[in-house]
Specification:
Length: 219
């Protein structure tokens, strides 16, 4: 899993602190500790609590909600990302802990808007728009594969509503909301951040060349 504090990935190992039960099942605090930053990650979960080697575990999880940290960390966006996209991305990040469904809906809608504005895809459903930008060959392979996974992880074939009405708040697959945000970050980097970095470097290079040219003219 990915640590919500430092964003490093680690092999999941946890224990459950039972807190009670009701009609929903057994409730427990799922406690993990990241080996990279050594900070605790706490999740409130419900399901059926069992025991393995004297350690409490949830044998199956019906629902879980991150309670510490309150909101998972994300890489801060560069100022090069336009406000219209940055705002939608941040909204999706803000609601992720409380509602992965709402977060995924916001990120799908942002992704569709981004592809229409920057990739110039023909307005259609999101699945077809993703296919169009992949067929265009304009994206690096690693980004093309990642954006295709938005369809696969989101199970668009079984839930076409996600593609036809991108802002619809409906059930999500495990890891889907997080992956959508990861893909948006990759696309922001490709469409906005890297071009801005290269432009700045080119401007610096041109200034240096002008200085060299001036020195040569003086001779």
């Amino acid at each position: 899993m990915k640590c919500p504090h430092c964003l490093e990935s680690f092999h999941d190992f946890y224990e459950v602190i039972p807190v009670g039960n009701d009609a929903s099942g057994d409730w427990g605090i799922i406690s993990r500790k990241c080996p990279s930053c050594e900070r605790v990650v706490l999740v409130l979960g419900t399901g059926k609590i069992g025991s393995i080697g004297g350690r409490h575990v949830l044998e199956f999880i019906k629902d879980e909600r991150l309670i510490y940290p309150r909101v998972p960390s994300r890489v801060p966006l560069s100022k090069e990302v336009p406000v219209e996209f940055a705002q939608a991305y941040r909204e999706a990040c803000t609601v992720l802990a409380d509602s992965p469904k709402a977060s995924a809906a916001l990120s799908r809608r942002c992704l569709q808007h981004l592809l229409r504005v920057k990739a110039g895809v023909k307005p259609s459903n999101l699945a077809d728009e993703i296919q169009e930008v992949m067929d265009s060959g304009t994206l690096p392979p690693y980004i093309a594969e990642s954006i295709d996974d938005v369809r696969n992880i989101g199970n668009f074939a079984a839930q076409p509503m996600k593609s036809e009405r991108t802002g619809e708040v409906i059930d999500v697959e495990s890891g889907e909301a997080d992956w959508n945000l990861d893909v948006l970050e990759a696309l922001f980097n490709f469409y906005f951040i890297q071009p801005a970095i290269i432009k700045k470097k080119r401007e610096i290079l041109n200034l240096r060349l002008k200085e060299i040219d001036k020195k040569g003219t003086k001779k």
